[in-house]
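Recap from last week: sequence in, structure out.
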Amino acid sequence: MDFDVLERNGWTVRCPYCERNLIYTVIKNHDLPVPFFYAKDANDVLLREKDRLRVEEFYLSLNDRARKLGALEQLWKKILADAPVAPNGGDFDLWSYVKCTNCQTELSYNNGIKDIGQRIFEPEIVVMDQAILLGDSLADSWKVKVKASGLRR
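Predicted structure tokens:
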């Protein structure tokens, strides 16, 4: 499958495992909680408008924040159950994160702590250079090309 290229500015960071440079960009996620998922076996990201709209409608119908969190976790799982296969042929997952493009080791998300509140309200989507950003359709999906401008601290 051929994807259009989306060029973005980004940064480099050293892989803590192989110490080679990784090139990445960040998409800000400051609206209502927006579901996005990383592929288990690649750096591809599922980020669909239909999921965002589904969550927005659902989120606004709930009153209590504690109930919202549990309900949102269940909604995230339902979205995953209906998710397409990742471009690499694998699955998307709630707790998968970016992998080193050199040694393929998955980097630690949130210092290894699985905090569902942090995950659902994550303000940044990390996208690695050459990853596929999978949207609702081929027209809404991109191969991401990142131009690194230095180290991000």
